[in-house]
């Protein structure tokens, strides 16, 4: 490659990094005079690359938004990062991902290509149960544009029961959570929160007008907390003594809500600094995973509801005590294992299982028009069971 051609490509790489580059900066980076920079810019324009001239004291050159993507200049690390990102999508890869990866691999330098091949030969990919949940690219871009410009959007949505409907939404943001994409916002007709899985949206189009999003709205928090408040079979309420960080280490935001109980602590009772009583609330289809999680939490707790959980915890504690004494544990070890409905899963697997289950649902809003529902302020008489 001749020196002038190499400098033209370097100029393109500098412009692709974004912003406006001054004439003095470009001349210094290329090691040429200003008139040579202008000649190189002319060559890029002749190649169909949209370069704009910016006048003024801080003027210079920048890439315009053209009708097509200009050639990309990637160094080794950037090319590898893009390829790894595309390869990570392999279990759910679409045609665009495959062709983009193939194009980059064809132009990789030999030394980098051989290293990438060694990596790909060493990596195995697992498939997500239930198949891919990739949203349509056109839908994703249309919703994103509506979010940016605060425009209402109408979507054609199919819920998990196969029922189709047309929904209007004021979209606050798009959230990628646990391998799925969601849009969250408000239904302007009834003024209630809505969250939808984008892979179940067949079409999205912006409507005339605009809307104002609530101040400080956090789309990711809305989605994650919505899972914790979803209507599942059991409503669980606990009081736990400890810090929020200790509870969150075992029960993340997508599983449970955690709130301080005003005046709930008693420092005179031996409580460590910052370890007051917290109210932990969650909803779940199953309870068998919770005793193991509470044991791993290793903090004093009170079960407020449901009574079934109290029974499971007592049974779990009895099995642990018996096995620690080496009596009933020997019998269980040779085949007298507790029935599956009473046997908690391993703690990490249990929480992951519950999180995956929630991520696969619409947090009850398919049947309830998409809204997250939470009745977290009801008070129930506490259980006398405490550990």
Shape label: elongated
Uncertain ranges: 266-270, 332-350, 359-387
Number of strands: 11
Summarize model confidence as the mean pLDDT.
Answer: 78
As a percent range, the share of strand residues is 15-25%
Q: Kindly report how far apart the N and C termini lie.
A: 74 Å
Number of domains: 4
- The radius of gyration over CA amounts to 29 Å
Tell me the number of helical segments per DSSP (H or I, 4 or more residues long).
13
* Biggest beta-sheet profile: 5 strands, antiparallel
What is the spatial order of strands in the main beta sheet? 6-5-4-3-7
Q: Helix-strand pattern, N to C?
A: HHHEEHHHHEEEEEHEHEEHEHHH
> Considering DSSP H and I runs of 4 or more, what fraction of the residues is helical?
25-40%
User: What structural category do the secondary elements indicate?
Assistant: alpha+beta
InterPro entries: CBASS_pafABC_assoc_protein, DeoR_HTH, HTH_11, WCX_dom, WH-like_DNA-bd_sf, WH_DNA-bd_sf, WYL_dom
Organism: Nonomuraea composti
Keywords: Transcription, Transcription regulation
Protein name: YafY family transcriptional regulator
């Amino acid at each position: 490659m001749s020196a002038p051609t190499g400098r033209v490509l370097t100029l393109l790489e500098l412009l692709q990094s974004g912003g406006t580059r001054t004439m003095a900066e470009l001349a210094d980076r290329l090691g040429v005079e200003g008139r040579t920079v202008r000649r190189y810019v002319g060559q890029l324009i002749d190649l169909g690359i949209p370069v704009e001239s910016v006048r003024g004291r801080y003027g210079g050159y920048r890439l315009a938004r053209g009708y097509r993507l200009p050639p990309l200049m990637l160094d080794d690390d950037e090319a590898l990062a893009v390829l790894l990102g595309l390869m990570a999508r392999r279990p759910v890869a679409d045609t665009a991902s495959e062709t983009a990866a193939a194009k980059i691999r064809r132009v990789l330098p030999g030394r980098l290509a051989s290293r990438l091949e060694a990596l790909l030969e060493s990596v195995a990919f697992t498939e997500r149960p239930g198949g891919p949940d990739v949203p349509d690219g056109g839908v994703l871009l249309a919703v994103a544009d509506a979010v940016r410009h605060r425009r209402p959007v109408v979507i054609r949505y199919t819920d998990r029961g196969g029922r189709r409907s047309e929904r209007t939404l004021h979209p606050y943001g798009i959230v990628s959570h646990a391998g799925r994409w969601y849009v969250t916002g408000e239904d302007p007709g009834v003024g209630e929160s809505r969250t939808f899985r984008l892979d179940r949206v067949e079409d999205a189009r912006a409507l005339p007008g605009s809307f104002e999003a609530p101040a400080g709205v956090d789309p990711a928090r809305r989605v994650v907390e919505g899972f914790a408040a979803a209507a599942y079979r059991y409503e669980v309420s606990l009081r736990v003594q400890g810090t929020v960080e200790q509870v969150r280490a075992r029960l993340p935001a997508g599983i449970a809500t955690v709130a301080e109980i005003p005046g709930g602590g008693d420092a005179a009772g031996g409580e460590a600094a910052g370890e007051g009583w917290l109210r932990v609330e969650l909803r779940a289809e199953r309870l068998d995973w919770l005793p193991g999680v509470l044991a791993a939490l290793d903090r004093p707790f009170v079960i407020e509801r449901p009574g079934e959980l109290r029974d499971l915890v007592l049974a779990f504690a009895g099995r642990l005590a018996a096995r620690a004494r080496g009596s009933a544990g020997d019998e269980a070890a040779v085949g007298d294992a507790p029935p599956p409905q009473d046997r908690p899963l391993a703690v990490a697997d249990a929480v992951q299982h519950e999180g995956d289950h929630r991520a696969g649902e619409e947090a009850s809003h398919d049947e309830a028009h998409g809204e997250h529902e939470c009745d977290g302020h009801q008070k129930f008489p506490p259980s006398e069971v405490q550990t």
